[in-house]
Specification:
There is one protein chain. The chain contains four helices and no strands. The chain is an all-alpha fold. The protein is elongated.
Amino acid sequence: MQLAINLLTLVLVVLALFLGLLILLQLPKKEAGITAAFGAESTAAIFGAGSGTALTQLTRWVATFFLTLCLVIAVMTSRHSSSRTDKIREVLKAPAAATTPIPAANPLGVTPVPPTPAAQTPAVPAPAVPTVPKP
């Protein structure tokens, strides 16, 4: 599943670069007024039958595919992470007696020798605090 997510993400990046190129290739509109600023003409362009050039139509199709691919990747990623979370929960719910302890790594193969009591240094008592008599 992770491989499919990675491949679709790669396709999404290539598609984003292509979409940016398509947007930059389009000619700007000559009409720049208050109606164009608030999108009065864009509704006619979007919903009109056969409106725009072939480049505009291609941009719309690529943008639609881009957004659909974003949603598909989001759903796949959420399902993949939830399945990983379920596996972790199952491992944590397993009884502790069923797990075997893993020995510590000893790269040199030498077994440590505990110190003998004679080799330990004797504890030095703390010096007594001098007391000052009260007058």
